[in-house]
Amino acid sequence: MRARLFTAAAATIGLVAAGLTINGGTASAHGNGYSALIQRASYGVPHITAQNFASLGYGVGYAQAEDNICLIAEQMVTVRAERSRRFGATTSNVTSDLFQQKAIDARAADHWLTGPRDGIHAPSNEVRDQIRGFVAGYNAYLRDAKNKITDPACKGKDWVRPITELDMWRANWTRMIRASSGALADGIVAAAPPGAGGTASAPQAEAVVAARDGAPAGVGSNAYGLGRDATASGAGILLANPHFPWDGGERFYRMHLKVPGRYDVEGAALVGDPIVEIGHNGRIAWSHTVSTARRFVWHRLTLVPGDPTSYLYDGQPRKMTSRTVTVQTPGGPVTRTFYDTHFGPVVVVPGTFDWTAQAAYAITDVNAANNRALDGWLAMGRAKSVGELRAVLDRRQFLPWVNVIAADRDGNALYADHSVVPRVTGSLAAACIPAPFQALYTSSGQAVLDGSRSACELGRDPDAAVPGILGPGNLPALVRADYVTNSNDSYWLANPAHPMEGYPRIIGDERTPRSLRTRLGVHQVQQRIAGTDGLPGKGFTTGKLWDVTFGDRAYGGELVRDDLVRICEAQPTATASDGTTVDLTAACAALRGWDLKVNLDSRGAHLFTEFALAGGLRFADPFDPAAPLTTPSRLAVDDPRVRTALANAVRKLNGIPLDARLGDIQTEPRGAARIPIHGGRAEAGVFNMIIGVLQPGVGYAKVQHGSSFVMAVELGRNGPSGRQILTYSQSANPNSPWYADQTRLYSDKGWDTIKYTEKQLRTDPNLVTYRVGERRH
Questions:
Q1: pLDDT tens-digit series, residues 674-705
Q2: Does domain 555-686 correspond to CATH entry 3.10.560.10?
């Protein structure tokens, strides 16, 4: 049956006519249908209430489809292995389709649904209901609006089709493996035994191997957990500041979800996900930052002589399994044969992990079996304290590739990297990583284990939720009354007063240089607590936290700008990398006049950014692990590469005034308008990260990724309060009223308020209420 939709004006009358009732403002359904109450607040944010999780999922699916149906539909094209047919047979689309079709044929997501429905071995009934409801709500909206879709990205496209529950589970599986199998997809597709023909090419897998840690490419985050010793009120305050893409399927979506008496959480989720992933309830708030841990391990296979698809295991041969996969493209079918071992798929990374007659390499992806995440986030939303939240993390071990930073009403702050990490302990690494690969493990956390011995299997920690991963006792966690913070470096300095050390290298590095963004993040907290940051008073309120986050400091400039100007003015010509002699006079003046920030009115900020990107931030003093927040800090003024980098920056900015206002050259398009955007690059030491691609002669004309969902929330005795914003706005549809409103708000450093309680919500002057639902037959 079609969805029932009621506007605010007719809501109550319509409910009675439909056989539905309102109980205390909540949704109630007769029989086994779906019914959800949607209250759209300012900026289009839905507050969704239902009496059960199936109806809650229905409301989420309907609301998300209203705002972002094209994004969700494209996700389903991906997990159905149809990108080549729908969007063209590019290399990336064909690779994606082959990888996804292999997962479909191997029933990767189907296997997730077997086993006890306890939320650890298999998804619970509550989560299954939520998925079922989301599918029904999305499909109901599609039936209602199929011929009325206004988003040009998918208007009239035949790939906008009804979805299934299995589509949703496949999409969730794909999210889980983003930093592991998904990141190595082209290396899995390229893997072929020697003599099979063709030349392996796997640039994405090569980038994964070359990366300094296991953080997935293209995403990042800042977060603060502020305890009672850091806040003006003594209650906990949280900053959520994920840095995610501004376009595509990894956009966040703000929403408030409630099943009375069972679940009540406000925050955000990635579009297409049915549960809040970053947010707060009445007593605790949490955010995530991208973790440095590796999510897979390599196994070096010793191959059977004369048979490159068999390997030795404890002296006995084992045959690889092969699976031939075919996908359709506009130019005809494409077929590939994949090879798997009992460890996992064979992967080729040319020049590093080649498949020869003697050896091949397979991976174990510990997130490929992580069917626990949706239940884990559901349980997080029910926690009432940092202690309860930590117990959820310990028991469920579900976070695929992120840390947790949290704060509660009693003023406790938590940092934990209790993500899913392969069980590579110090003893296993010492005994099972062959000597040629020890340096790789030390430098980047990538473990290459001896795949010929059963003694080198991952094994099981006694406290681990499932085999093959590190248990809570081997994972870093810290509870503080002052603060914890993370800006995508490892766990080591979540609080500098209590460095965390001695953990397996696969999780992250210790006693190594921190990024300028990490250092600034800690300095900002310490200076606010001490009252030395130029703002009035001491300690944090949500307002002061907003001011600090969007203070738009460029810490790299604070450290070196004066010395850079001095050497620039002393010798105002330099030679660029291409041999060109560059006049630096205008650059010297622009840098001298720069206010050391990345505000809209900041002049010369882009020049410093390009200088940093060109490798100009070279320091004369060494890193000192005893002073990790202040070293290194002195510009290497005698290093000729510093002046070369400045010359390169000037050359790159040809046609753009070196003293231009940042707001004039860093913008985000919304229709015919260009919205000025503040913020900048982490390479320049900016906390409020914004990344755009430089368009020659124009500037940064489109934001790629950076600050996205930003929330500053205090867990006060009278309920949560504070500020929040979705920088790129709620809808990707240019014809939506919620396409640009929060983006303009972000440009002005404005905010929307927390609207968790009924009282807070009722004060919203733009509130519109309607109900969606249908009967099931």
A1: 999 999 999 999 999 999 999 999 999 999 99
A2: no
Average pLDDT in the 201-205 region?
A: 96
Over range 54-67, report the average pLDDT: 98
Confidence band of 195 (pLDDT split at 50, 70, 90): confident
User: Rounded distance, CA 171 to CA 166, Å?
Assistant: 8
Given 3.40.50.150, 2.30.120.10, 3.60.20.20, 2.30.30.110, which CATH number is that of 185-213+296-365+424-456? 2.30.120.10
Helix, strand or coil, per DSSP, at residue 146 = helix
169 vs 176: CA distance, rounded Å? 11
The whole-angstrom separation of Cα 145 and Cα 155 is 10
> Which one, of 310, 95, 98, lies nearest residue 205 by Cα?
95
Q: How many C-beta atoms lie closer than 10 Å to residue 744's C-beta?
A: 15
Q: Give the mean model confidence (pLDDT) for residues 330-349.
A: 97
Domain boundary assignment for the chain: 185-213+296-365+424-456, 555-686
What's the mean pLDDT when you consider all of the chain? 95
Of 606 and 775, the structure prediction assigns the larger pLDDT to 606
Asked if 385 is an active-site residue, the reply is no
Catalytic residue among 35, 180, 221, 419: 221
Provide the phi-psi class of 401: left if phi over 0, else alpha when psi is between -120 and 50, else beta.
Answer: alpha
Q: CA-CA distance, 26 to 50, in Å (whole number)? A: 6
Question: Number of helices and strands (H, E) in the chain?
Answer: 22, 32
Alpha-helical regions (H) of 576-639: 585-593, 605-613
Alpha helices in 108-258 (DSSP H): 108-112, 125-145, 165-176, 185-190, 203-210
Answer yes or no: same fold for 185-213+296-365+424-456 and 555-686.
no
Is the overall model pTM greater than 0.90, yes or no?
yes
pLDDT band at 196 (very low <50, low <70, confident <90, very high): confident
- What is each CA distance from 367 to 274, 376, 458, 484, in whole angstroms? 19, 14, 14, 27
Q: For the segment 394-421, what is each residue's pLDDT rounded down to a tens digit?
A: 999 999 999 999 999 999 999 999 999 9
